[in-house]
Amino acid sequence: MYSRAYKAVVSLPPLLWVCLFLLLPYALMFAHSFWLVRDGSLVHHWNLQNYRALFTNPLYFQVFLRTARIAASVTLFSILLGYPLAYFLSFHAGPRKELLYQLVIVPLWVSYLVRGYAWKTILGSDGVLNGFLQYLHITREPVSFFLYSPFAVVLMLTHIYTPFVFLPIYAALEHIPRPLVEASQDLGADRRATFLRVILPLSIPGLLAGATFAFLLSLGDFLAPLLVGGPSATMIANIVQSLFGAAYDWPLGAAISVCILIITVSLLFTTERLEKRWAFK
Amino acid sequence: MSAGAISTQNATSGGALLEVRRVVKSFGATQVLKCISLQIASGEFLTLLGESGSGKTTLLRLIAGFEQSTSGEIWMRDERLDLLPAYKRRVNTVFQNYALFSHLNVRENVAYGLRVKATPKAEIAGRVEDALRMVKMSNFAGARTTTLSGGQQQRIALARALINRPQLLLLDEPLSALDANLRKQMQSELKALQREIGIAFLFVTHDQDEAMALSDRIALLRNGALEQIASPREIYSRPATAYTAEFIGQTNLLRGDIKNGVVQCGSLRWTTSQASGPVLFSLRPEAIRLADASLQLPDSVRFRGVIRQQIYSGASELLEIDCGQNQILRARIPASDPLTDDHEFVFSAADAVPVTESSAARAQRVANSTQQ
């Protein structure tokens, strides 16, 4: 057993950290969302005006819907790329498994910003993609909608978050005892039936974890719309950013942040419960 | 010649259900199965017995379809089994650690084979019920498999395989994870079940007692080759090789020479009709008895020896007898009072079974003699 003093000494630093950098900022944000700005300065007057504005001005709702749509698309495409990749690596890669795994992970070590600028270079009017298409005489003029569109945001975020989706799915697949696959075949199930009836159900916790990563990280992203999105792809975090910056309306920004936080936390709760429901231990 | 004629010609000969023909399996440079041929009759309980690394599990996996043989053929009646994918083979497997689906309950596990074959729902329900009753697990239909004990999981694994009505059931060390008492109980249940449903069992084990208790025939594998295949009685009383004699039960290996119709093994001698030359005999410990005046054995061989050890095991006891000339013999006699000093012992010359070193050693010797 550890002494009381030892426990106190050990738990104090993390406790301080959590209070200072987590609880305090959240409390401040929560408080700000009930204050307001008058004549360019913050007024500590408790009211619900910010939340009323959020729910009455259709602009915020539209941006939020677009954000959710982009996040959902990123999630979908990341799964469509990440799941088959994880499946192939776990079941069919043979001795190249380790190498391929590392290759999937390597992009995670490259800065987010660098990858963003890379996409800008690829998608721009005189970018790599347009140059290539014109070289092949598929297009005559540079195609302008590649860059500065929701499409570009989805593309870039999918590229960035696919490894995040891949990792938990791969871990889940690696944990499936191989005799179960053999048992399924032994009982008359072909590859497809074995996948649908054994492998897929047993990999659902990993799938849910990966989907949660991709969705929530995309939901709060503001750099992708800034770099490759343009005005037609403004996301909710961009609104928050401008409210805290140029627009100088911290209370409204805080109110939006509180809403996002509530959505995020409830989503996390839901997926965690679902993951438990599908984890047969 | 028509295709039909070919398949009849190639069908398993006689009443054999399954025939393994000259099957070789290599992993890289290692040959784990060296030209195995054997047959399983329908309704037969055949055990593949061997140490770990003998290739017994590999042979089972080749028949199930989880591995592909390097060469050779496997036939089931008039069907070339080894060319079919595992899911098309009409054999089912009970896996070593049961391999129950953890995301399905007991009923769903048992129903799995019928579900994937799109069996009508009503039929599935009835057959699942029958299968669970057969293994005495009806009360657990709704249970999660992870909550079951080892023995219970074992029963579910059996029901899940048998519900598909295979002609041949493959069992890969199914009892090895159970504790000793449960294991004995499951052995007798397994044997009773096999008699009742009358399908052939191919059973893999490293436990020779288990093999003796259950099997109609035992195929003893050693380093990927078939050492001997025979009924338990035959393999015990007439082992072909020294390895078989030592692996199945205990034995005394007597090395000696025959000269002019007389066997000389250390201090033991008896007359024989065998030709002269070096010879190796297997003499089971229970064939040796304490000599007394009233005991008359045909061709009895008598010898004296000093008792070095007496190991009591209930109904019988094992004696270690020092016969001089560095020859120690083990005798199993009915439990008696403690014995000391030297005694006279006797065995029947007919119980000394001539054996070869091993099938591999014999082949080697033949090869050497042809070279010379």
- Mean pLDDT, all residues of chain A: 91
- Rg value of chain B: 25 Å
Q: Oligomerization state of this entry? A: heterodimer
Q: Label the structural class of chain A.
A: mainly alpha
Strand order of the largest sheet of chain B: 6-7-8-3-9-10
Mean pLDDT of chain B: 89
**How much strand of chain B?**
25-35%
Computed structural class of chain B: alpha+beta
Shape of chain A: globular
CA distance, first residue to last residue of chain B: 46 Å
What are the segments of chain B in which pLDDT stays under 50 over at least 5 consecutive residues? 1-9
Largest sheet of chain B: 6 strands, mixed
Residues in helices of chain B, as a percent range: 25-40%
Structural features, described:
- Helix content of chain A is 74%, strand content 2%.
- Chain A has helices at 4-32, 49-56, 58-92, 97-105, 112-123, 128-135, 150-174, 178-186, 191-219, 223-229, 236-244, 250-278, and strands at 36-38, 41-43.
- The mean pLDDT of chain A is 91.
- The longest helix of chain A is centred in the N-terminal third of the chain and has 35 residues, at 58-92.
- In chain A, a hairpin with a 2-residue loop joins strand 1 (36-38) and strand 2 (41-43).
- In chain A, helix 5 (112-123) packs parallel to helix 10 (223-229), helix 7 (150-174) crosses helix 10 and helix 8 packs across helix 9.
- In chain A, strands 1-2 form a two-stranded antiparallel ribbon.
- By secondary structure, chain A is mainly α.
- Chain B is of the alpha+beta class and 372 residues long.
- Chain B is 28% helix and 34% strand.
- Chain B has 10 helices and 20 strands.
- In chain B, a hairpin with a 2-residue loop joins strand 4 and strand 5 (79-80).
- In chain B, helix 3 (106-116) crosses helix 4 (121-134), helix 3 packs parallel to helix 5 and helix 4 (121-134) packs across helix 5 (150-162).
- The interface between A and B is medium-sized, with 21 and 28 residues.
